[in-house]
Automatic annotation (TrEMBL), chains A, B, C:
Residues reported in the UniProt entry to bind carbamoyl phosphate: 47-50, 75, 110, 147-150, 277-278, 305
Domain Aspartate/ornithine carbamoyltransferase Asp/Orn-binding: 186-313
Alphabetical UniProt keywords: Amino-acid biosynthesis, Arginine biosynthesis, Transferase
UniProt-recorded name of the protein: N-succinylornithine carbamoyltransferase
Name of the gene: argF'
Limits of the Aspartate/ornithine carbamoyltransferase carbamoyl-P binding domain: 5-160
Length: 320, 320, 320
């Protein structure tokens, strides 16, 4: 594995889940792989879970870790050729990225969608530059359109808690006070489509995700109908993906609080589990009683971030 | 030892001092204990000595260290239930703290007193939430009311320099231009009361510390009388603890420069040592000649922060 | 080696280059030296290359690394004696620096020239205080007037690419939109004067470097004449060093774009290599085609920063 952005990158999904199970029982068993290897974590945006869990996974593998916080405002990279750089951009990406590649063996990059230019975001402009110019394997720590370490951790969590061979998993849009990127729902959809689950997406009209992530998922606009019989309810807000109307990209079209997951919503399910990637706004996405119930998996999902990261780092190290 | 906030937590004080002495001679002798164990240091406030010395101590023990700087302004945690989180608080402590606990074995927390709400500060609201919800052993890297790593380092320093079996130790209030918390004097009083020393507190009227920290200490409002015969002078400013008048909590009641420790003050002592936890404002707390004299212990105290932290981390690791 | 600021500190230059060559083939071969040794990196200014490469070098040697970012604005150190510290300076350097020395074995310091007070900058006031008061070996991670880790990496790169025993190396001033310090050209001049090369400096009138760095270098104000026959072109901007007119210190005297290194400039050389320490402003210092050509050494120079740092750290460790 030379990069990690999409579900295909991890190879056979059943084998990856088996590897996750093995690593969870034996986190420190692969330190020969990481010895004298350095992970560089580049953050263009803030992070709590990703920062901690990825560091922990790398340390489990015996790696060295260097964390670089790039203040996106302060360190603007020039991307054009033929320009006189006499403005606020003090370095060109064609130098900055190969230089970062000099001092490490693997690079993780976090760079959120700006939500202003759909084409720029969906082209994954920033991380593709890292892939092209760093000379080192690159993996996503949440990019403009994907957050695969989260989706993989979610899949591990579903695998650990499922009560039937092919559970019903419903990803439900929920309201939020700020415009959020689509990276988490995009990746979750992509991974669920690849997994052995019955996957349904439910959302208000206008919130359709990009077709390349929706794939063959069933889309159901009636939230109640979608949730009926669900084994897992994956709540998440996202801003308008701009599929039907590109001018709406990144906007908040709807704050309908009827979509907030409460006890009544959960009563429609098959005694289902509640899931969310965190951080979560209580009262908007989910009510206190649901997230605090014994059917809430939010903390196990977070804990599995260490495991998904360790599997991914291990596979990247094995391919060096 | 499952938590470290108060002097009782360390167990027998003589044994702890003996362990400190042993560790100071053999800092790298306990690395089996720390192997594959991760310390998470969470800072809600700035730090120089605590940040460096605690990291150093953990590295001495062979631990991995992850440092998390929480910008108190940017990352506000919701603490109430039943609220719609549509304001500036993007995460609830009931998720954030267990998540942090997922990725480490021990947690150190720095969270200063806000000095606005005495009940909130003295209830140790923030760190108690870490104890309750993180699922991991928690220790203080200076909380609202205690700074035990400092007090333990101070006691080690006194032990190393005392010339009699039961030295006289005087903690003297001194003036300052800003309102400071009471965590350092609170802990120092608590530890001195537990140690085999003759302990006196001297301060202007109105600056009485909370009775639970004063304990059986002798309180003397006449600074000269207090300092007479002192073997160690522990200077420190603190703002009004609000014991006699809660409305004065956190205020500066007095800037009397007669309390500044100068050569004359030291002349009243038994050829005593000068101590301060640092950082110190010269000219307000102490004069240049006193802090630079060969009877100043401020640098040895700071150096012993590595030792007190290593003893505490070792004890926490042994209890895992 | 107890400090590392000037070329003399490294000892015999041929031996140092031989050691660099050996380390580049065997980066992890000296981990016994670094075991249980801690490097403290103190940054008063931002850093990308120095931060990453020095960390990487220390990790190669098996050291522990602690990074301290000092916000120069927020943490002002008092340097005078006899003053009442009731202003914005909360700590005196006479305490802060020895304290930092308590928790490490080696200290690297980055502290740029302020470009306001030539005497203060050229006296290296800040780093000399670290040398005097920390009690530990100190090395430059770019100071007010020197950046020896860069100059050493540049020399290694020249050694690796030279086609004759004594190549011609030309350092050429180039225009820039901001006032930059002289640390890089100062050190480069110092190291080239000590190396077995034919060294020429070319710059507009008024940009003369301090004589102690110019040494015996040939100075040629006609850029074309200087570049003729050059094997290596080392482009760099610097602000006025204030040698002929101290009142001009730190000012931009000239933005003449005829000094920008383009293909025509390179055509005057002996099929020469282009060098720059990075970050570089394209269009001002150098054109896209020159920096992107197969004769550009900017990335190899950056990669050799890991090597120069490892040689220096190794020598400092050997002298402990």
């Amino acid at each position: 594995m030379k990069t990690f952005f999409n579900v295909e990158d991890i190879g056979n999904l059943d084998q990856a889940l088996a590897e996750a199970k093995e690593i969870k029982q034996n986190r420190f068993g692969f330190q020969k792989l990481g010895k004298n290897k350095t992970l560089l974590m580049v953050f263009f945006n803030n992070s709590l879970r990703t920062r901690l869990s990825t560091q922990k996974a790398a340390l489990n593998l015996g790696m060295n870790v260097i964390v670089l916080d790039v203040n996106a405002g302060a360190w603007k990279l020039e991307t054009r050729r033929g320009v006189i750089m006499d403005g606020d951009k003090s370095e060109h990406l064609l130098e900055a990225i190969p230089v970062m590649g000099c001092y490490c063996d693997l690079i993780g990059v976090r760079s959120f969608a700006g939500l202003k230019d759909r084409d720029y975001d969906y082209a994954e402009t920033i991380v593709n530059q890292f892939v092209q110019y760093s000379g080192k394997p690159v993996f996503a720590m949440e990019t403009a359109t994907v957050h695969p370490l989260q989706a993989f951790a979610d899949l591990i969590t579903i695998e650990e808690h499922k009560k039937s061979k092919r559970p019903k998993v419903v990803m439900s849009w929920a309201p939020h006070c700020r415009a959020l990127p689509q990276a988490v729902p995009d990746s979750f959809a992509q991974w669920m489509n690849a997994a052995d689950v019955d996957f349904v997406i439910t959302q208000p009209k206008g919130y359709e995700l990009d077709p390349k992530f929706v794939g063959n998922a069933k889309v159901e606009y009636d939230q109640k109908k979608a949730l009926e019989g669900a084994d897992f309810v994956y709540a998440k807000n996202w801003s308008c993906p701009g599929v039907t109307n590109p001018a709406d990209y990144g906007k908040i079209l709807n704050k309908d609080m009827n979509w907030t997951i409460d006890k009544q919503h959960m009563s429609w399910t098959n005694d289902g589990y509640f899931m969310h990637c965190l951080p979560v706004r209580r009262g908007l996405i989910v009510t206190d009683d649901v997230i605090e119930s014994d059917h809430s998996l939010v903390i196990p999902e977070a804990a599995n971030r260490e495991i998904s990261a360790e599997v991914v780092l291990k596979k990247l190290l094995e391919s060096l």
